[in-house]
């Protein structure tokens, strides 16, 4: 039994020329237009996924991890972690 992946509906507009070419490809291959578009999107995401992950890892925000010393090694496990108490002066 095949496992079905959860699908997300995406809707957009494209110009007529692009539509015509995509539709011709679909007809030539004998598959629905939406399958051609899915293939294009899968290829695009695979092409750019590595670059995206690299950019996320290069983000300077990660350099700040571990700089704060609370004195409590389990501080981030507590429900109050990150809760700031404000008071008016």
Account of the protein in words:
The N and C termini lie far apart (66 Å). The protein has 89 residues and is an all-alpha fold. The radius of gyration is 24 Å and the shape is elongated. Helix 1 packs across helix 2 (33-58). It has helices at residues 16-29, 33-58.
Features:
89 residues, mainly alpha, single chain, 45% helix, elongated
Topology:
Elements: H1 16-29, H2 33-58
Helix pairs in contact: 1-2
How much is the radius of gyration in Å?
Answer: 24 Å
Mean pLDDT: 85
Main beta sheet strand tally, sense and closure: none
What portion of residues is helical?
40-55%
Number of strands: 0
Low-confidence stretches: none
Helix-strand topology string: HH
In DSSP terms (H or I, runs of 4 or more residues), the helix count works out at 2
Shape: elongated
Overall structural class, as computed from helix and strand content, comes to mainly alpha
User: Strand fraction band?
Assistant: under 5%
The span between the termini is 66 Å
In short:
The chain has 89 residues and is an all-alpha fold. It has two helices and no strands.
């Amino acid at each position: 039994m095949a496992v079905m992946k959860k699908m997300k509906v995406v809707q957009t507009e494209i110009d007529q020329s692009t539509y015509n070419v995509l539709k011709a490809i679909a007809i030539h291959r004998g598959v629905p237009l939406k399958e051609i578009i899915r293939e294009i999107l899968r290829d695009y995401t695979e092409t750019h996924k590595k670059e995206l992950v690299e950019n996320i890892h290069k983000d300077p925000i990660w350099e700040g991890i571990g700089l704060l010393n609370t004195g409590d090694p389990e501080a981030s496990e507590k429900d109050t972690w990150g809760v700031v108490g404000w008071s008016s002066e």
